[in-house]
Amino acid sequence: WSFYAQMGPYGLERGFRAAAISSAPLGDLAEIAAEQAIGDGVGERWMNVVACSVLMAVFGSILSALVTAVRFSEAMALDGELPQLFAVQNDAGMPIYGVIAAALVTFVI
């Protein structure tokens, strides 16, 4: 972190203090590391690549959580721990009311 510096309210901040005042410390670090490793003009592009990979990871996590929640609610309905409504499946075998409930909870959160 010795190469990480940013202007703060009291002048040039270095290291963890610079990260603390940054609005995007990991993006700044990715940009600086790419600039030093590859060369000038690459840092901002690399920061955008890192940001896109984070967005894909978040999207994948949300999708896997939805699938898990739907299947858990179906299993709990079959065990009698939730209303039988959550075990009702459509023609494709998907528990439709579990999907709707999971989507609504995800949307509200």
What is the topology?
Blueprint: E1 5-8, E2 11-14, H1 16-21, H2 25-37, H3 43-78, H4 96-108
Antiparallel strand pairs: 1-2
Helix pairs in contact: 2-3, 3-4
Rg from alpha-carbon coordinates: 23 Å
For the termini, the CA-CA separation is: 35 Å
**Count of DSSP H/I helices:** 4
How many beta-strand elements? 2
β content, as a range? 5-15%
Largest sheet: 2 strands, antiparallel
Brief write-up:
By secondary structure, the protein is mainly alpha-helical.
Explain the overall architecture.
The protein is mostly helical and 109 residues long. The chain has four helices and two strands; from the N terminus they run ββαααα. The protein has helices at 16-21, 25-37, 43-78, 96-108; strands at 5-8, 11-14. Strand 1 and strand 2 form a beta hairpin. The longest helix is centred in the middle third of the chain and has 36 residues, at 43-78.
Name the descriptors:
mainly alpha; 62% helix; elongated; 2 strands; 109 residues; 4 helices
